[in-house]
């Protein structure tokens, strides 16, 4: 049977999509090749969020065509995912050797199309059409066949985004928001847990908007809020009673009920989704890990408005304050764009000062990249490349300095980790994650796989903590 090699660019949703395509192909009898040179089929699962990501995948394809493919003319090569969706046929015009272009609503047809191409029934396939219910079309996970069961799994809960931030290409690559149903998602999670999964990350482009059109918020539960949230300063208008519960928090509640599941995470949320119901969930649901990746994008109200983000600096700071009130050790991560059109030095300073105020555990900084058919790409006052570079550098220095300080503060502290398996770089070391989503390495053995264990942190490396299990697990 043919073998396939899939290379993934971009976000966790892309990783999940690649995993699902791989599982689908394995179920149809394909094997997984160790490299593109050894594969009968090479698929690149692409990202469009910045031009750099697109160029990387295009260069890789050129490289595959020039090496592996030139030695074996029968090799099938294809693009799938976001760039396939946004560029479609243009990709085969640019690279005529490409056999397959598979859009983001067509992953479930990968096996069928590859079979046709391999059998020579069709010479080329480009399919980027929309397909109803594609958000629930694939649920295969690659669990069997790997040496050890996965401890942690991604579950896609929704597709698309209606926020239309002016810089962002995602609404055109992933389409309108479409959510799966709560019972469907819970059934998938239960199946994973029955197969040994302990941690589930719920995925979507804007998970906090999950089900908001189809699933009504349920009324106040009436019981008092946790003490940390009961003051008006923290809860704002809601005072001491529970807020209405959004569809997303209803989903968290339902997943939380699954016996044997130890940890829940989600990504990516939107700040406007951090209502009091979600803040309160962090206090109430022990399986919900105290970690949040909340994209800030800018600390300037003027830019937030131009970006169409729908919140202010003050609102963002309020969310952080509420989260820290219920979970003081919460790990806080963010995304920031520098050099958005019209960003002045004063706007950029607002972002710097917000980072100083919040002290994120880490921040992913992106230089603004104009994307096709987005309003920001047509805005005047594009910021010169050298200023984007320079601001990127300054912000990175600040973020790294804060992050390093926060890492060092872990030394001597006890943390709880879920052990994921041997470290990729050094098989004698095992790796796990804390609840606040930091990677910890320790001298482990196969018996630790999938265990929840307490460790004392002894030292730090670059974005890694080193722990010793012997000290606390006697
Ligand atoms: N340019 C630079 N960064 C971008 N992002 C999204 N669109 C762009 C763009 N046009 C960043 C945002 C988002 C992250 C995934 O990518 O910060 O949160």
Give the helix/strand layout.
Layout: E1 3-8, H1 12-27, E2 31-32, E3 41-46, H2 51-66, H3 68-71, E4 76-81, H4 82-87, H5 89-94, E5 100-102, H6 110-118, E6 125-127, E7 152-156, E8 158-159, H7 170-174, E9 178-179, H8 182-194, E10 199-203, H9 232-235, H10 247-256, E11 263-267, H11 276-284, E12 291-293, H12 301-306, H13 313-326, E13 331-338, H14 345-358, E14 362-367, H15 385-408, E15 414-422, E16 429-434, E17 439-443, E18 452-461, E19 464-468, H16 469-472
Parallel strand pairs: 1-2, 1-3, 3-4, 4-5, 5-6, 7-10, 10-11, 12-13, 13-14, 17-19
Antiparallel strand pairs: 8-9, 15-16, 15-18, 16-17, 18-19
Helix pairs in contact: 8-10, 11-13, 14-15
5'-deoxyadenosine binds next to strand 13.
Structural notes for this entry:
The protein is 34% helix and 20% strand. By secondary structure, the chain is α/β, with parallel strands linked by helices. The chain has a 6-stranded parallel β-sheet with strand order 2-1-3-4-5-6, with helices on both faces. Strands 15-16-17-19-18 form a 5-stranded mixed β-barrel. Strand 15 and strand 16 form a beta hairpin. The radius of gyration is 23 Å and the shape is globular. It binds 5'-deoxyadenosine. 5'-deoxyadenosine (5AD) binds next to strand 13.
């Amino acid at each position: 049977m043919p073998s396939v090699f899939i290379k993934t660019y971009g976000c966790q949703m892309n990783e999940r999509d690649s995993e699902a395509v791989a599982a689908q192909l394995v179920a149809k009898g394909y094997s997984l090749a160790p490299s593109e040179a050894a594969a009968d089929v090479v698929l690149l699962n692409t990202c469009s969020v910045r031009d750099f990501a697109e160029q990387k995948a295009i260069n890789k394809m050129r490289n595959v065509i020039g090496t592996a493919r030139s030695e074996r003319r029968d090799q099938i090569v294809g693009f799938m995912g976001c760039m396939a969706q946004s560029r479609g046929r243009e990709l085969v015009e640019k690279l005529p050797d490409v056999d397959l272009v598979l859009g983001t609503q067509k992953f479930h047809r990968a096996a069928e199309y590859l079979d046709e191409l391999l059998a020579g029934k069709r010479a080329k396939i480009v399919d980027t059409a929309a397909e109803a219910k594609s958000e629930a079309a694939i649920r295969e996970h690659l669990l069997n066949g790997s040496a050890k069961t996965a401890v942690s799994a991604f579950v896609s809960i929704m597709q698309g985004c209606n926020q239309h931030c002016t810089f962002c290409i995602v609404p055109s690559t992933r389409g309108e928001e479409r959510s799966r149903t709560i019972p469907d998602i819970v059934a998938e999670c239960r199946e994973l847990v029955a197969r040994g999964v302990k941690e589930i990350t719920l995925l979507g482009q804007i998970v906090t908007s999950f089900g908001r059109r189809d699933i009504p918020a349920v009324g106040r539960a009436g019981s008092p809020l946790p003490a940390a949230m009961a003051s008006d300063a923290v809860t704002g208008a809601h005072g001491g009673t529970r807020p209405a519960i959004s569809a997303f928090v209803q989903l968290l509640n339902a997943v939380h009920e699954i016996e044997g599941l130890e940890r829940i995470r989600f990504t990516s949320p939107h700040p406007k989704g951090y209502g009091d119901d979600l803040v309160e969930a962090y206090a109430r649901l022990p399986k919900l890990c105290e970690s949040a990746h909340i994209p800030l994008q800018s600390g300037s109200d003027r830019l937030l408005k131009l970006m169409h983000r729908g919140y202010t600096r003050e609102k963002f700071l309020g969310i952080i304050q509420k989260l820290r009130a219920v979970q003081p050790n919460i790990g806080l991560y963010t995304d920031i764009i520098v050099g958005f059109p019209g960003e002045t030095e004063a706007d950029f300073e607002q972002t710097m000062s917000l980072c100083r105020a919040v002290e994120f555990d880490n921040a992913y900084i992106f230089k603004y990249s104009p994307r096709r058919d987005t309003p920001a790409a047509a805005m005047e006052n594009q910021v010169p490349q050298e200023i984007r570079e320079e601001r990127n550098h300054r912000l990175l220095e600040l973020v790294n300095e804060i992050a390093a300080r926060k890492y060092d503060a872990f030394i001597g502290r006890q943390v709880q980790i879920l052990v994921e398996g041997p470290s990729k770089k050094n098989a004698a070391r095992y790796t796990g994650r804390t609840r606040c989503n930091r990677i910890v390495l320790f001298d482990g053995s196969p018996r630790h796989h999938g265990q929840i264990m307490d460790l004392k942190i002894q030292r730090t490396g670059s974005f890694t903590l080193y722990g010793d299990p012997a000290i606390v697990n006697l």
